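Supplementary Text 2. Reproducibility record for the structural model of the 282-residue chain.

All settings were left at their defaults, and a single model was retained for analysis rather than an ensemble. We include the record here because the model underlies the residue-level annotations in Supplementary Table 4.
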Amino acid sequence: MNLKNILPKGGPAIDEVDKYIAKYNDDFIVIKCGGSVLLDEILFNQLIEDISILNKLGLKIIVVHGGGQNIKKKLDSAKIISNFINGLRITDKKTIKLVEEALNELNAEIIKRLKDKNCEGVSFSATCNNFINVNSISKELGYVGNPTKLNISVILKEVKSKKVPVIAPMGLDKNNDLFNINADSAAGAVAKEIKSRRLLLMTDVPGILDKEKKLIPEIYSKNAEKMIQDQTITGGMIPKINTCLDAVNNGVTGVVIVDGRKPHSILFELFSDKGAGTLIRK
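Retained model, structure tokens:
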């Protein structure tokens, strides 16, 4: 394999990639992308390039995407005001249809861009080839669900064929009603089911910061729990970290809060000594 022809300019050094690549040979990597990574054209293109490179290097990649800002645009144009409970969007019957449209459009765009990079993505959405069963979280939230059961074999079949599953975070309940799923929760559920080597959560922050606002490159789950208790970790980071803790305590080797604003952050996280965020271990 000629790494020089595969790796991008401005990415990790070839000798570092060479050192790390065998580490992930037989393992799964789940990548959750959302936020500014999907909104900023440069970051979006770099994300697509990084995923296609991992695929060319022979790694087993599964992508789960969010789409909060895309959903917001749809709802704004329909003059629907969003209300949230603990960071989750209250979703009624009219809203869930627009959520589905926004996520499916984004999903198709990711597939198209991967194809432009000679990487074959396979779309997974609730109404097309649903593999996520859900339970409603609460009546107040409406059509927002938690994953309860995954038909993971359909995903593994595509990975085995050297394709990249691209999953829109939606599922069906026992009545075949459509539910939105928090993308972190959906990615965590997939990573736990396949006991992935890494779950990468792409974010708009550097990672976990200590009280002096300095980046913590690596942390164990017990210490992360303490940081929630003493309010070093606050606000929207709490549910994200709880997803990380749930994953590492249920078979995922390591979860990384990745700073998706950095160029080629996925490649630097997997194939360099310095990484690109905070690695959480059990």
